[in-house]
Every structure is written in C-alpha cells, then in structure tokens.
Write a structure and sequence with these properties.
500 residues, mainly alpha, two-stranded antiparallel ribbon, 5 strands
C-alpha cells in the first residue's frame, strides 16, 4: 500500500477547514425556517444537479457499489446501479410534478394531508430512521482506518464531527453550496484515479486474464432473488426524504426535471467507473510483484493488494496503492466530500423531521421560525448520535444500506404513491395501518435475524433457517412490503369515513 505524504495531509486539512468555514459563513444568514430548511425554495437546475448527485452518490455507492464490484464484478452496475436510473426517470416525469402541485415541506407533510396526524408521525419516525447518517459515519470509520491508521470509531468521531459542525450552523444553503464544491471534486478525482488504477494492475488485459468469467457476466453468479432485492432498493428514490426536500426547494418543476435527466448520465458514468475500480482492486489481490525484503535483502513475491482486504474497503485500498503524492490527497478530499455531502443532507432532513414533523404539530403548533431552527439543530445532533450507534452495530456497508432502504420502502412507499395517484384511497386508517405495520415488521424482522441468525462470511450477510430454507437478511422486503400493502387495504375496508 502506498504511503500518504505530508502534501496529502495538507490538502485534506485545507478541504476540511473550508467546509467548516462555509457552514459558519451561513450561520447567521437565515431569514426564516423555509430559508434554513429549503434554501428559500429558490434552487436552479445547476445547483439541483450538484446537490442531487453528490447527496445520492454518497457512501452507499462509493463503498456499496465497490463492495459488490469487488466480490461479483459488473453485476454491481447492471443489477444494482442500473435499475436506479429507471426510478429516477419515473421521479422526473411522473412524481416531481405531482409533488410540486401543493405547498409541502417534507415527506410526512404529504402523509398528514392524505391520512391525518397519526400517519404523519409514523412517516416522520420512518424518515428520521432512514435519514440517520449511519452509512456516512461507517464510511468515515473505514476512511480513518485505511488512510490514517485510526481506529474506525476515531474516524467516525473526528471526520463525522466536522460535517456535523457545518450542518448545524449553515442549514440547507450550506449543504447545497458545499455539495457544489464536492460534486466538482468527486468528478475530477474519479476521472483522474481511473488511469492510475489501470496502470497499477497492468491494464484491462490483466483484469480479463485474472478474474473469473462470471465477473464479466451482467448478472454475475448472484441469485435472481438477491438481484431483485438490490435492484428494488432503487424504489427508495420514489419516497426519498432528501429527494423530496430538493423537489420542494426547486424554483420550478422544470428545474428539478432537467436536473434529474442530466443527472442520470452523470450517475451512470460515475457508477461504471466505481465498478471497474473495484474490479481493479480484486485483480490487484491476484497480481504479484517482486520486492526487496528490507530485512534480508532477498527478492520476494507479493500481491499488489493484500488478498485479505475487506470488500467494502477495496476501493480505498487500490487508490492508496495507485495514486502519487498530491493526487492521493485530492482523492481523499473527494472521498471525504462524498461522505460529507451525504451526512449533511440526511442529518438536516432528520432534524427537520424532529422539528417540523413532530415538535410543531404535536407539541407547539405556534412555534416561531427561530424555535423551529433551534429544534432542527437538536434533531440534527440526535440523528448523528443514533447514526453513530447504528454504524457500529453492522458488519458491512451493503447490509446497512439494504436495512435503511427496506425501512423506508416498507413503511411509506404504498401510502405515498397510492395517496398521490388514487384520491379515493386517502382514508386515515389505510395510511396508518400501511405505514405502521410496514415500519414495525421491518424493524422486528431485522432485529430477529441479526439476533438469531449467523453471519455468513461468503454471502456477507446474516442468514436464518426457516423451514429448511436459508433466509438472507436482504430478503426481509419480500415479507414487509406485502404486509404494508395488505395493511393499507384492510384499513381501506375498515375505514368507512372519508379523509378527516
């Protein structure tokens, strides 16, 4: 593994200081809650492109995609990433316009209008859990470990703490403008890293020679059931709290539609490069190089990348090995930016769930904008602490992402989409049972499997035996989404009144 030089540390330090500076600059510039939480509903297409891409292309893609690319090959793009683009197209042409028709501020706002306060609170809890910055903090821990030699918990505390500072102070304007800086860094760094990684392993020919043929099969050797689950995590986009926040913050529907269409091409390129870099890392574990033993002076054979590298740390490891001084610092700043753009966005949404979706309607309906901003900051802090607890309780990143996505999809996908498109289905009990049963069944099943199942190193997930069948933790949505749908129609049948 390459050595990190002083210039790399200087570049990283300058970047981190700059991000905190942006947050402090915006700390006193908010006129009201709309300005703090939705940037005054004035985002144009270029700003929407940068904030959408850098938020979504956070840690779950950088390390979730690369984990799958490392273990299974191009299926990471064809089976995991590609279906997401179809959901983005649906969001651009069908969903965003409906969401813009009414004056919503958050996802639970929609549930409140269609199904009442009780469903709003379930939606707020769901959105809050989904928005916990566990994935980003997990990534900061890995970053500190692989790059800086820190214990993962130290990386989470130090690097995650810096992102927390500028989110607490700066609000959504700080998020959007730091996302713009981070977007440029991400694109430049990945384009720069690609040739270095290819050079390190000896080019595409070596990759084709060393990797198993299934690495180049568009569906790999994964079971169709697992591919369906990975692909269906893209459904989260249709009820994604940070996506909804950006729809509500856009200047117009046209701005958000254009940003999504342009974004799909950038997302596709970004995903593909990440997948190939992960495959390069796998190749590096199979390609030997001759080095001189510093102790004996003898020539010894060693692989370019340690074969024992964790799959979700593979991308970082190949970059440290491939990039020269200075370039490595830029790459690290780029990775940090990817992580931070995700953490700040989700913490802000979670804070909004506490202040706007629970505190205001349930505790203080006449809360002033300043009180809402203050309570949002408390919510941001709470989400960071709970996200930290969740990050240290999961074995690997892809499982954590599937857990987060399954909570969101199982709880609010059915009531949001049916409420948006079928007005006669807007019955309070239908929404409440659908969201409540979806949320509770997802949490109960995941906890049960993690407590009673065994962690399979080959599958990299928890597995429990039911009726002689191996049931993977990722399969939970096969049970919980139907529960949510059944709950909706039971509520619809029982609720003889209209929307209250």
């Amino acid at each position: 593994v390459g050595v990190i030089s002083t210039i790399d540390y200087v570049i990283i330090a300058i970047y981190l200081a700059g991000m905190v500076g942006v947050g402090i600059w915006f700390a006193k510039k908010h006129t009201d809650f709309d300005d703090f939480f939705l940037a005054g509903r004035s985002l144009t297409t270029p700003l929407l492109i940068t904030t959408l891409i850098s938020t979504y292309y956070g840690i779950d893609v950088l390390f979730g995609d690369s984990q799958l690319g490392f273990t299974d090959g191009v299926v990471a793009w064809f089976g995991y990433a590609r279906p997401t683009y179809a959901f983005f197209l649906i969001a651009a042409f069908l969903l965003a316009q409906r969401l813009r028709e009414e004056d919503f501020k958050s996802l639970p706002d929609i549930l409140d209008k269609y199904y009442g306060k009780n469903t709003r609170y379930v939606g707020a809890v769901t959105s809050f859990i989904y928005s916990l910055p566990a994935l980003s903090l997990y990534g900061f821990g890995m970053l500190g470990d692989v790059i800086l030699g820190w214990e993962p918990i130290v990386g989470m505390l130090v690097l995650g703490g810096i992102a927390l500072v500028y989110t607490l102070t700066g609000g959504f304007w700080a998020v959007v403008l730091t996302d713009s800086i981070q977007f440029v860094l991400m694109c430049v760094v990945l384009a720069m890293a690609f040739p270095f990684a290819m050079n390190l392993i000896g080019g595409f020919d070596i990759m084709i020679e060393k990797l198993e043929p299934n690495y180049f099969d568009s569906m790999g050797d994964l079971s169709i059931w697992l591919i369906i689950i990975y692909a269906s995590t893209g459904l989260a986009i249709l009820v994604e709290p940070t996506f909804y926040q950006r729809v509500f913050a856009a200047k117009s529907y046209k701005n958000i539609r254009n940003a999504l269409i342009i974004g799909i091409f950038i997302w596709g390129s970004y995903d593909w490069i990440i997948t190939i870099l992960a495959m390069a890392a796998k190749t590096g574990t199979l390609v030997g190089k001759t080095i001189i033993d510093p102790g004996t002076g003898a020539l010894i054979q060693k692989t370019i990348i340690d074969p024992g590298v964790a799959p979700d740390a593979a991308l970082l490891t190949v970059m440290v090995a491939a990039l020269p001084a200075g370039a490595l610092g830029l790459f690290m700043a780029g990775v940090l930016s990817t992580e931070m753009s995700t953490l700040d966005s989700y913490c802000l949404v979670a804070g909004g769930n506490v202040a706007y979706d629970i505190y205001k309607p349930a505790i203080k309906p006449d809360a002033t904008d300043q009180e809402l901003i203050k309570t949002t900051r408390y919510g941001i802090l709470l989400s960071w602490v709970l996200g930290f607890a969740m990050a240290v309780s999961f074995e690997q990143m892809l499982g954590l992402w599937v857990f987060m996505a399954s909570i969101l999809i199982s709880s609010v996908l059915v009531p949001i989409l049916l409420g948006l498109y079928v007005p006669k289905f807007r019955k309070p009990l239908a929404g409440f049972l659908s969201a409540g049963l979806g949320l509770s069944s997802t949490v109960i099943l995941n906890v049960y499997i993690m407590m009673n199942g065994t962690f399979d190193l080959e599958e990299e997930t928890y597995i429990v035996q039911w009726l002689g069948i191996d049931f993977l933790q990722e399969f939970v949505m096969y049970i919980t989404v139907p529960i949510s749908l059944i709950g909706f129609f039971i509520g619809l049948a029982l609720d003889k009144g209209g929307r209250s």
